[in-house]
Amino acid sequence: MLHEIVISNELSLTDKQVRTTIALLDEGATIPFISRYRKELTGSLDEVQITAIRDRIQQLRELDKRREVVIKSITEQGKLTAELEDQIQAAETMAVLEDIYLPYKPKRKTRASVAREKGLQPLADFILEQQVGDMDVQAEAYIDADLGVTDKDEALAGARDIIAEVIAEDADVRARIRKVFLEKGTFVSRVVPGKEEAALKYKDYFEWSEPLVSAPSHRVLAMRRGEKEELLYLDIKVEEEDTLPLIEKLYIKGVNDAATQVRLALQDGYKRLLKPSMETEVRVLTRQKADEEAIKVFTDNVRQLLLAAPLGQKRLLAIDPGFRTGCKTVVLDAQGNLLENTAIFPHTGAGGVLEAEKTIRHLTDKYTVEAIAIGNGTAGRETEEFVRKLNLTGITIVMVNESGASIYSASEVAREEFPEQDITVRGAVSIGRRLMDPLAELVKIDPKSIGVGQYQHDVDQQKLQSALDDTVMSCVNAVGVELNTASKQILSYISGLGPALAQQIVNYRKENGPFSSRRELKKVPRLGEKAFEQAAGFLRIRHAKHPLDASAVHPERYALVEQMAEDLSVTVPELMKDETLRKRIDLRKYTSEEVGLPTLNDILTELAKPGLDPREQFETFSFTEGINTVADLRVGMKLPGIVTNITNFGAFVDIGVHQDGLVHLSQLANRFVSDPHEIVKVQQKVMVTVVEVDEKRNRISLSMKTAEKAPRKRAEKRENKAEQTDMAAKLSALAGKFK
Fold first, then answer.
1. Disulfide: which of 74, 209, 251, 396 matches 371 by Cβ 3.0-4.6 Å?
2. SS3 state at 481
């Protein structure tokens, strides 16, 4: 109950919403299922809110597990008191819990533990009390050659070692100093001497300093990568005047010899123990924050790419372009099945051009091709230009982003699909299928390979994979899947299934033919009632006997829809076809404890447009003719382009020259922009202006600003300051979750 209160307060939700959602998750319900089909129970929470509840309850339960370990450890040491146990139980964050545990945490031999073995603990206690007295006299009482204390200086030094560790492990001290590091710390980066040439890609960070609170994730990750490659030194700097006085206020009680010893111990403990410990913690915290931001950027990009508009089921010809090796060409039917493959050589001389033209015309006529997909890799623009010059009437020509197609073509998935074909054929098929349905094809490859990330290989891979799995599952279930044609890869992301059941469904389909109804799913081996409940609403069966099997209406609500139809003296198909009939339905008549207006409204929407694809309609696009290479660009040109990737510092746009240009954050709009996703999304068509071209470095700078007057710098400064304040708050909040 306590956890539910904590989460409801943090997320501004009711206790009931949180409690019910946690119960559903614990029962094995997936986030898409809860969001879509359990709105009455959760108060219509969306996927983002449900995910937040899931992640937070996991953190709190991990805290509980750690709390149990800490109590057990301290109990075994015989040091657990009622007061200490209360402190442990009251710890609300991992950071607080670890600070409480630190003095009791088993550790290797330290200078303080050696001093305690020498019997110097009482002397350290006396000094900490800072009573008036002669320190030399006090110290001489602890001289013992057998214990290794040969003189008073050794005794005092040992006592200071004990005091230094006590101060460095003080939970209050650590909390205060951690706060200073997070709020006033500065990243300091410099090049490793002698490695200037090897580190040229990190030139911006050769002599660089930046406050932690304002350092964006891409710069943090860049500096950390440079450090990992041993090309940069990276430090976190905090001025001692911001830290030592805070500790002195807690420990210095007066002006005497004992206080002098405490001050010496304090300074030593800070430099030798506390400062390195805080630097390590803060490095982890800033890394976690940078990872979270980079993962969010990546998952947002992946979501936009997966939900890109599909061309739909069309007969098409797909070309994987190339110069010397030719262009691998395949023909696919409307379901994406391979019909024929060949190779053309339109870039190897007149003979090759004529033969390629003859082949394209023959294939498009033979199979009544409706569209041509051309990969955007090497020779992509040249191949597109060749095809467009053929003036093929009624055929849509589209450039397709082929990032990751080579990964797919060499994968086990591709070998299973096309065991008799080589990787070039598989790659061309993937390009064509991406045009038909990006979601269905892209789920077959690792999302990290589709070219829309930001330092995705540098971030926490477990967290990245978890976030990507959530994103792909969300996209797949939002669109829905045709049960009788779906691959096992896309089926595995359906709510309640997973790889094993997805394979069972495919096996059943091969042995028994197409599914005639959703209910038939229950005949699939090992697919039980729970899996059916979770999955059924997201699976579609076109031309099924029951019309609702092609919709997003869950089978558990079929009886309700049938009752609506019966009350109007019509059939369910008639109800679905006639809007006037649906308008006569009084939803209040069908509400119950289990079904409320949110679900009923969803049902009505679905009856109007059963199985409607939520993705945008496909729009044709073409690059500017004659602009094929970086050398063709001129400053001031206005060109159409497609957003291929979004990072925290801007958006990359394909303008058809085999090198994406960068629209920097400052060039996205005529106003201050803190998040590029406010302005653009992956696969969006945009108009850009060429600002700068660097042929030697193959870099293109673009702008999406209009001719309007840019915002005043004063306003931008205000927004930057607000952003830094918000960043400081986020770091402090993250510190509370530090493990």
1. 396
2. strand
Task: Count other C-beta atoms under 10 Å from residue 393's C-beta.
Answer: 6
Class of domain 630-708: mainly beta
Count the residues in the chain.
Answer: 739
- What integer is the mean pLDDT of 584-590? 93
Nearest to residue 520, comparing CAs of 490, 483, 487? 483
Q: Give the strands of the sheet with 316-320, arranged side by side.
A: 338-344, 327-332, 316-320, 371-375, 396-400
Residue corresponding to tokens 């073409």: 622
Residue 192: band (very low, low, confident or very high) from pLDDT cuts 50, 70, 90: very high
**Is residue 730 exposed (0-12), middle (13-18) or buried (19+ Cβ within 10 Å)?**
middle
CATH of domain 2-104: 1.10.10.650
Residue type, 315: R
Which stretches does DSSP call E strand in 266-424? 316-320, 327-332, 338-344, 371-375, 396-400
Return the bridge partners of 482, or none: 540
* Range 293-318 average pLDDT: 91
Q: What is the pLDDT of residues 42-83, one digit of tens each?
A: 999 999 999 999 999 999 999 999 999 999 999 999 999 999
Query: DSSP characters for 425-478?
Result: HHHHHHHHHHHH-HHHHHTTS-GGGSS--SSTTTS-HHHHHHHHHHHHHHHHHH
Q: Pairing mode, if any, of strands 316-320 and 327-332?
A: antiparallel
Domain ranges of the chain: 2-104, 111-302, 316-436, 630-708
Cβ–Cβ < 8 Å for 620, 398: yes
- Say what the pLDDT of residue 736 is: 52
What does the DSSP assignment read for 499-561? HHHHHHHHHHHHHH-S-S-GGGGGGSTT--HHHHHHHGGGEE-TT-SSGGGGSS--GGGHHHH
**Beta carbons within 8 Å of 535's beta carbon, 6+ residues apart:** 494, 495, 496, 497, 521
| Cα–Cα dist 321/325, whole Å | 9
pLDDT value of position 710: 44
Q: Does domain 316-436 have CATH number 3.40.50.10420?
A: no
**Cβ 288 vs Cβ 309: under 8 Å:** no
Residue 470 Ramachandran class (φ > 0 left, ψ -120 to 50 alpha, else beta): alpha
Q: Is 445 exposed, middle or buried (0-12, 13-18, 19+ CB in 10 A)?
A: buried
With tokens 């204390």, the residue in question is 149
Report the alpha-carbon distance of residue 499 to residue 518 in Å, rounded. Answer: 19
- Residue type at 148 in one-letter notation: G
The topology (CATH level 3) of 111-302 is Tex N-terminal region-like (1.10.3500)
C-alpha–C-alpha distance, residues 315 and 436, integer Å: 9
Cα torsion for 176, 179, 183, 184, to the nearest 10°?
A: 40
Q: How far apart are the first and last CA of the chain?
A: 23
| Tens-digit pLDDT profile for residues 515-540 | 999 999 999 999 999 999 999 999 99
Each residue of 610-669: pLDDT tens digit? 988 899 888 888 888 888 888 899 999 999 999 988 988 899 999 988 889 999 999 999
In this predicted structure, what is the pLDDT of residue 739? 41
